């Protein structure tokens, strides 16, 4: 396990490493309703305790100003506005968010600027406004086209709305559009997944993320599973569905570049590649995580606590940790092994290299130049491969 050096109540040292990619993540902590499977840091109107999007935006501006004072003016390669439901802010609200980032940081001329959006809070005018504001990429939560699956997941949009939204985004000039799918939901059939994947491909997007349904502790879904109302996702079914969707996507010209992410050439999400490749980023907004130098930190979670600290002109940090070299090594292995580009063999010590050879012999890893890459079977067992590699 990662061991960390915890420091509570003090501001961390933001010693930016000048090389590599730098990103800004902005967390929008609002949702109209909560999907039963989701444990992200997000609040429905009844949970906000008076917090408002306007108050959040003001606090965000304050955090970004403090951030830019602490950093030596890095050029921002990528911006990612996630949630929660960023599209609840509307096109004008998201334009203000990007302006807030731009007023404190210099964006690279070719910066990738993504926002997540929920299908039901989008429209052609929304996407046009995002384009004129400077967004270059949209990520839409589709999850499935099967009405029973959407119902089980508490999704409020119709099966077709995510597809229409994906087309509207492209019509507004977005070259890069992602659709998120969830597979392995109780009640989903192989055929349901096939129809979802075909529909997503047919919408003309250049990126697809597909996540196995995780029953997160503390969610409504976890309670339903505990009460025996719905079955937990079955490991064998999840593995088969992954293999199926990988085959369907490959047939349609999509290549996996991370275990849960597929794209057409040039459609990879550069912001997320930054996370996996050890890049640095400032995470702004309630509950956001950031990573600069060897320091990882995370913000206070509730929008009211966040706004109260911002009003005092304090960084809204809940806690931080400084990664020791061994922690950093574990992170690098954990993240880079998931990439199609693979894990540089040179990152591994002699014992780890010997264990990697056992994984190669077992058909879980292959050598690709100087890197080790998961095989198709290895992708299904990625967590176990990492555990075995790092076993001391
Ligand atoms: C947290 S959401 C934010 C974006 C947006 N609000 C939405 O719902 O599309 C990002 C993605 O995470 C995935 N996700 C969230 N919780 C999950 C879970 N328990 N299991 C699998 N995927 C999950 C969903 O595919 C979702 O689209
Ligand atoms: S999945 Fe998206 S819409 Fe649903 S509760 Fe989570 S963040 Fe909100």
From TrEMBL:
One GO-annotated biological process of the protein: porphyrin-containing compound biosynthetic process
Record PROSITE patterns: RADICAL_SAM
Subcellular locations according to the entry: Cytoplasm
Gene Ontology CC annotations of this record: cytoplasm
GO MF term list: 4 iron, 4 sulfur cluster binding; coproporphyrinogen oxidase activity; metal ion binding
Role this protein plays: Probably acts as a heme chaperone, transferring heme to an unknown acceptor. Binds one molecule of heme per monomer, possibly covalently. Binds 1 [4Fe-4S] cluster. The cluster is coordinated with 3 cysteines and an exchangeable S-adenosyl-L-methionine.
InterPro entries: Aldolase_TIM, Coproporphyrinogen-III_oxidase, Elp3/MiaA/NifB-like_rSAM, HemN_C, HemW-like, rSAM, rSAM_sf
Presence of the UniProt keyword 4Fe-4S in the record: yes
Entry's family note: Belongs to the anaerobic coproporphyrinogen-III oxidase family. HemW subfamily.
Key words of the record: 4Fe-4S, Chaperone, Cytoplasm, Heme, Iron, Iron-sulfur, Metal-binding, S-adenosyl-L-methionine
Domain Radical SAM core: 16-255
Tree of life domain: Bacteria
Record's protein name: Heme chaperone HemW
Top-level taxonomy: Bacteria, Bacillati, Actinomycetota, Actinomycetes, Mycobacteriales
Primary location recorded for the protein, binned into one broad class: cytoplasm
SMART domains: Elp3
């Amino acid at each position: 396990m990662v061991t960390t050096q915890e420091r509570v109540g003090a501001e961390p040292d933001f010693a930016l490493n000048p090389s590599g990619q730098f990103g800004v993540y902005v967390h929008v902590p609002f949702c109209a309703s909560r999907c039963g499977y989701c444990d992200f840091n997000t609040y429905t109107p009844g949970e906000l305790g008076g917090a408002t999007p306007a108050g959040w935006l003001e606090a965000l501006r304050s955090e970004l100003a403090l951030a830019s004072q602490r950093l030596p003016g890095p050029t921002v390669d990528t911006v990612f506005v996630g949630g929660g439901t960023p599209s609840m802010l509307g096109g004008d609200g998201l334009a203000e968010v990007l302006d807030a980032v731009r007023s404190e940081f210099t964006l690279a001329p070719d910066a990738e600027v993504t926002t997540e959006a929920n299908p039901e809070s989008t429209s052609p005018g929304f996407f046009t406004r995002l384009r004129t504001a400077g967004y270059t990429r949209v990520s839409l939560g589709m999850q499935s086209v099967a009405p029973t699956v959407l119902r089980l997941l508490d999704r409020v949009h119709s099966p077709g709305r995510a597809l229409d939204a994906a087309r509207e985004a492209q019509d507004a000039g977005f070259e890069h559009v992602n659709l998120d799918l969830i597979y392995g939901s109780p009640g989903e059939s192989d055929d349901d997944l096939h129809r979802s994947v075909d529909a997503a491909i047919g919408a003309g997007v250049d990126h697809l993320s597909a996540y196995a349904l995780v029953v997160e502790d503390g969610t409504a879904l976890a309670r339903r599973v505990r009460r025996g109302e719905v079955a937990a996702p079955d490991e064998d079914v999840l593995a088969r569905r992954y293999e199926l969707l990988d085959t369907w996507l490959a047939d349609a010209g999509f290549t996996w570049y991370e275990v849960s992410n597929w794209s057409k050439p040039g459609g990879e999400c550069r912001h997320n590649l930054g996370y996996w490749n050890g890049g640095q980023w400032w995470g702004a907004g309630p509950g956001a995580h950031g990573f600069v130098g060897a320091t990882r930190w995370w913000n206070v979670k509730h929008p009211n606590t966040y706004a109260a600290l911002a009003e005092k002109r304090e960084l809204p940090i809940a806690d931080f940790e400084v990664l020791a070299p061994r922690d950093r090594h574990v992170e690098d292995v954990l993240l880079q092994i998931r990439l199609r580009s693979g894990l540089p063999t040179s990152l591994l010590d002699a014992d780890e290299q010997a264990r990697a050879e056992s994984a190669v012999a077992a058909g879980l890893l292959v050598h690709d130049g100087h890197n080790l890459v998961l095989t198709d079977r290895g992708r299904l067992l990625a967590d176990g491969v990492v555990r075995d590699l790092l076993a001391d």
